[in-house]
Amino acid sequence: MRTTGLIAALALLWGSGFFWIALALDGFTPIQLTFARLALGALVLVPIVLVRRLPRPAGRAKWFHLTVSALIANAIPYTLFAVAEQTVSSSLAGVINATTPLWTLLLATATRSDSRLTVRRSAGVALGFVGVIVVFEPWNGLASGTTGGVLACIGAAASYGLAYIYQARFLTNRGLSPLTLTVAQLVIATGILAVALPFSGAIHGPEALPTVSVLILGIIGTGIALIINFQLIATEGATAASVVTYLVPAIALLLGVLILNEPASLTLPIGGVLILAGVALTRAGRPVAG
Questions:
Q1: Cβ count near 282 (within 10 Å)
Q2: Which of 70, 119, 126, 274 has the most CB atoms within 10 Å of its CB?
Q3: Cα-Cα-Cα-Cα dihedral of 124, 125, 131, 133, to 10°?
Q4: What's the confidence (pLDDT) of residue 288?
């Protein structure tokens, strides 16, 4: 029951992130939204690292790798999803986000981090990208701005995939806890977005709902969600935590359609199922790292 509760809570928090982004964009630009999200998430996690007196990163090489990781794991994908949701629905963004494991596998193969691209995995990747095409519906014509938004979502998912590979090669199993590494990345990414903040436009008196949405997205959807994720991995293992991958797009789809009244085309859930089926094929028979 405890494991089920943690999985459900994490899936709800991460799945609803696309919903909160859509609401927050009514009062903030993508850069402003991403900066606030990162800063609030860092404010939740930094005190935990300090109280627990966890070892801190040391050395120029470590901080360089953390900066690269902060860019591709936080600053870039968070911003791209916010940019994308200016023109595409939150439900579509949530479904495309599920392609992250497919990009991870492809990029790992391309960089020779994982050369085991078997027939089953190749079929899974192909099926997953068929799902993306189904979601995109190119045969129905493309609405103005939709192409750019979809490409931004794909870029964000690919950036996440690249981040997993980079972190595994340069940051994990290097004597620092995953929590310390995550906090360092959030702080660095916040600094990166702070540099871009003066060029992001003025805040035109955001109303209560966008402001509350940003607070929820940063404090709960980023900070507390990461705490739950670490707790789930520590107590139940990465296999249990990976179950969340299959629940996030369903929650994003439900919230977008039921609450935001986004278009309820059948191609979206069908494409989502194809993507998740492809992800399942790529993971079948594959040992999961701790």
A1: 22
A2: 70
A3: -150
A4: 46
